[in-house]
Specification:
418 residues, alpha/beta, four-stranded mixed sheet, 12 helices
Amino acid sequence: QAHTQLVTCIDTRSEGLRRHLEARGEYETFGFAGFFAVAIAFTDLLAGAPAQLCPVLISASHDISEEPAPESGSIAVRRVAGATRLAGAESAFHAAKESMAGPFALAEAAGWVAAPLSAAKTMSPSTIGGLRRRLRNLISPAAPTVLTVDSMPLTERVLFAQATLKTIGLTRDFGRLLVLCGHESSSENNPYQASLDCGACGGQGGGPNARTAAVILNQIEVRDELRRSGIDIPGHTVVIAALHDTTTDQLAVLDTHLIPPSHRTDVDRLNTDLVHAGRALAAERCDILPGAARRRSTTNAARHVAGRSVDWAQVYPEWGLAGNAAFIIGPRELTRGIDLQRRTFLHSYGADVDLDGTALETILTAPLVVAQWINCQYYFSTVAPEVFGAGTKTIHNVVGNVGVMAGHVGDLRLGLPQ
């Protein structure tokens, strides 16, 4: 029996992660739509407009908020205050750039700082990216938080849990850890970043969905109701959330402050194996990334893809879902041990627990439809790039918040960039 079960998005990029993690031994992996069946409007600690984290086929049905954990103390206050100051400075800078006379004064006042920073950012993006990250963490440090799910009735929480676990066929033989792994993508100066994030979360990161689902599946009252329907999650099983950055292939376990001491060793082992799996996946991807050296070590590959994510001149931070070729619905036994070259959507399904075919119908009418949309988006952007594509990113100009055009004149470009 596996000591850890990992549920990832059906995204083709997750296929490589699952394959490399399974090679570490005693892992069982599953595929499910990356919003994990919780269609939420998420408001993070910094407030602002809620993010609609769900497929475009449906609407968010619950408001989920992030609040400071009881033990966060003054760190949460520092995080909010620091983030507010950084956002204010950035807004002021962009407002000056976009005004009529402001750019002339801004060039005189800030040019002596901006010029060397721009040169450094171009010549050594990894160094500057690291410095920016450390400065941001110093001003606005990360703070432990919790998600409130009380607004979701118990019956709906139980229904979500039943639908998720029965659809993927995970109703027994639970390990000590059940990991719900969402994904996102990090890149710099990229108007198309949303196309690299989770489609099941509306082109955004799936971390909040994984965290919400983990909170629900850890609740005693939810497990008691699941037991009545034949799904017995034992007391030794802890559900945790994780996040996969598909540009850097770095994986992080979320909400570590909520993990009980009894499972710290298990999580340490998971973290070690996730690092090895991520680096192996990065080395595999480097074989087809433009500008990446072939047959590099896993450590160098990890360093290279991390550099691509902070390089503002990089037009190929990653390949996204390019090359997707098939959608496989079934138990992992059908594909385990096969190198599908990150070209296949993998949706777990157990026919033995779906006697009336409801789960299969849902898969065929929702995830499969979205996957075909994605396939068409890549296909037509490739075979008819002048009509349905967006050309090269090197001459793109962003027009407001609605699209891009090539150069300084012309129509808005459709589809994906070259």
